[in-house]
Amino acid sequence: MAKYYYGSINLSKLLQAAKEQHSGIARAVKQDGTKGDIYVNLTVWENDELDKYGNKLAIQVNPAKDSQDQKFYIGNLKPGEQRDPVQLTANDMNEIPAEDDLPF
Length: 104
What we know:
The chain is an alpha+beta fold.
């Protein structure tokens, strides 16, 4: 039977890492040489016990193998308690940079 986990990731941290050209975040190149989608290398793991906040899973961004970049956490997940998402306002949406702001 499927297990559901709910949580969030820190988009601000991801965007900052992308701007800093962290090796765990890269843009694919299409066969025709044009820019493709942006991907984030992640590790998600399940802890043996819940942490003090009730989280069971953790999410981390991993750098490329040959990079000196550090791993960093971007979120946690809790088992089974679905929550309604917080709706972003128009102001919040304006703060999210366009893809063109990324250095790759």
